[in-house]
Amino acid sequence: MDFLRTSWIAALGAFLSSFLLLYECSKLDGYNFTVWTTTSCPKNKKEWDDRSSLFNCNHESSLACLPNENYTELLEFCYPLQIILIQKGICLYLRKDDSKLYWYNCSHFQQGCPQENYKASTIYEHLSCVSLGRGCFLQEPSCKSVTEKPFQGTSSNELATYSSIWVMIVAPLLTIFFISVVATLLFLFFRRRKLKARKNNDEDAETSGGVEQQPLLGPNPDINSKDLLMDF
Questions:
Q1: Among the four 55, 71, 108, 216, which has the fewest Cβ within 10 Å?
Q2: DSSP 128
Q3: Phi and psi (nearest 5°) for 86?
Q4: Distance CA 84, CA 69 (A)
């Protein structure tokens, strides 16, 4: 039973991992083989092997994660070579028109340019070759990050949008808080009123029970039984 449970959990985990990986990717057209965009390349051997199995790279091909020809996005694909060997001092990219790999001299990189020959399957050890900016490699001196944006202030439309969002968030919370406060006050009011009424009833009951009950025709100490008999 434990074995079956473990197997189900492992299968579910594999399915979710595959789903998340595919969710992060987007299929591209115009290549001679299936190519997907991705936000990042695998970061270690395990991730690389998982991606390779996910994309179903067989013994005649191997997984590759490289930039496109414009250096604007990363691509993942099964390239028709068992082993992709790369010389030191260069990075690779995939061109769309012929679906072939081309090299890029990285000797001018500020840091991270491979200093020895390597395989495409170990690209996670040479992140400078897959770290992109605005149409360039981030390690190039003149390259700017895609996340860098000059400060231009906040427009009136943005302020209106932010205000609307805050109203949508705060208004329901304030309504719930107000209703809760009113309900609590009403509950305390009626509870106090009920307790006060019960206390008054208890006091009335104690007062009526403490009065001495007198007989309707009590004995007269000035009249004895002999006087009553003489009258007759």
A1: 216
A2: G
A3: -125, 135
A4: 18
Question: Which tokens belong to 127?
Answer: 């992140």
Residue 109 scores a pLDDT above 80? yes
Distance CA(195)–CA(190), nearest Å, equals: 9
Question: Which sign does the torsion angle of CA 168, 174, 178, 181 carry?
Answer: positive
Backbone CA torsion sign across 166, 171, 176, 180: positive
Whole-number Cα distances in Å, 60 to 23, 56, 80: 26, 11, 6
User: In sequence order, what are the residues at sequence separation of 6 or more whose Cβ sits closer than 8 angstroms to the Cβ of residue 50?
Assistant: 17, 21, 42
Cα dihedral across residues 118, 120, 124, 129: positive or negative: positive
Residue 199 Cα distances to 188, 189, 193, 203, angstroms? 16, 15, 10, 6
Q: What is the CA radius of gyration of the chain?
A: 44
Question: Which class for 51: exposed (0-12), middle (13-18), buried (19 or more C-beta within 10 A)?
Answer: buried
How many whole angstroms separate alpha carbon 26 and alpha carbon 23?
8
In this predicted structure, the answer to whether residue 228 has a pLDDT above a threshold of 50 is: no
The per-residue b/e assignment along 94-125, b for 16 or more CB within 10 angstroms, e otherwise, is bebeeeebeeeebeebeebbbeeebebbebbe
Residues 173-209 have pLDDT tens digits of 777 877 888 888 888 888 888 887 777 776 666 665 5
Q: Are 62 and 84 in contact (CB under 8 A)?
A: yes
